[in-house]
Design a protein that fits this description.
There is one protein chain. By secondary structure, the protein is of the alpha/beta class. The chain has 2 domains: 1-32; 35-136, no CATH class. The protein has helices at residues 2-28, 135-144, and strands spanning 37-44, 55-58, 61-71, 78-85, 95-100, 107-112, 125-126, 128-130. An 8-stranded mixed β-sheet has the order 7-1-4-3-2-6-5-8, with no helix packed on it. A hairpin with a 2-residue loop joins strand 2 (55-58) and strand 3. The N and C termini lie far apart (95 Å).
């Protein structure tokens, strides 16, 4: 009889640990209660390398997450919804861009604050955007470029 109780207690501990892990993973991915964030929108030409739950950083510090990604069938741009920490007030002329963590690192969303006195309200759109830059296309432009035959060599 005591063996069954021990198995029940061990099983309950495993279930509690699993639930705690799921709650922690959901909060880390920005899927927790939305009471401490507010949504902003942005449209990108390319959002390659960014997915739901990707970090949104300001000055290298995480201030939000990507909570929605859809393709706009009218403009053919990627519409993103960003959950920003309520403590962060962004000026209306702020810019948002896709940045890379390095040559082999992943992409994240970076916010560059503007200088206007007015702040973005929940649900507003950040209009100054820059999409992801493809490293492969940059390399192809560099490799495929030909020297200008009219250019004179430096003396």
């Amino acid at each position: 009889m005591s063996e069954n109780k021990l198995e029940i207690v061990a099983g309950a501990l495993v279930v509690v640990a699993a639930v705690a892990f799921v709650l922690y993973a959901g909060k880390s991915a920005g899927m927790g209660a939305g009471g401490d964030t507010y949504p902003l929108r942005a449209s990108f030409r390319s959002i390659e390398g960014v997915a739901l739950g990707s970090d949104v950083k300001l000055a290298g510090v995480k201030v939000g997450t990507i909570t929605g990604l859809t393709l706009n069938p009218t403009t053919y741009m990627a519409d993103a919804v960003i959950a920003i920490d309520k403590k962060i007030k962004l000026p209306t002329d702020s810019a948002i861009l896709i940045s890379s963590e390095g040559l082999l690192g992943g992409n994240y969303v970076e916010i560059q604050p503007g200088g206007m006195p007015d702040n973005l309200a929940p649900g507003d759109e950040i209009e100054d955007t820059q999409g992801a830059v493809s490293l492969v296309s940059l390399l192809m432009k560099f490799v495929g470029s030909k020297p200008d035959p009219a250019a004179k060599p430096a003396p």
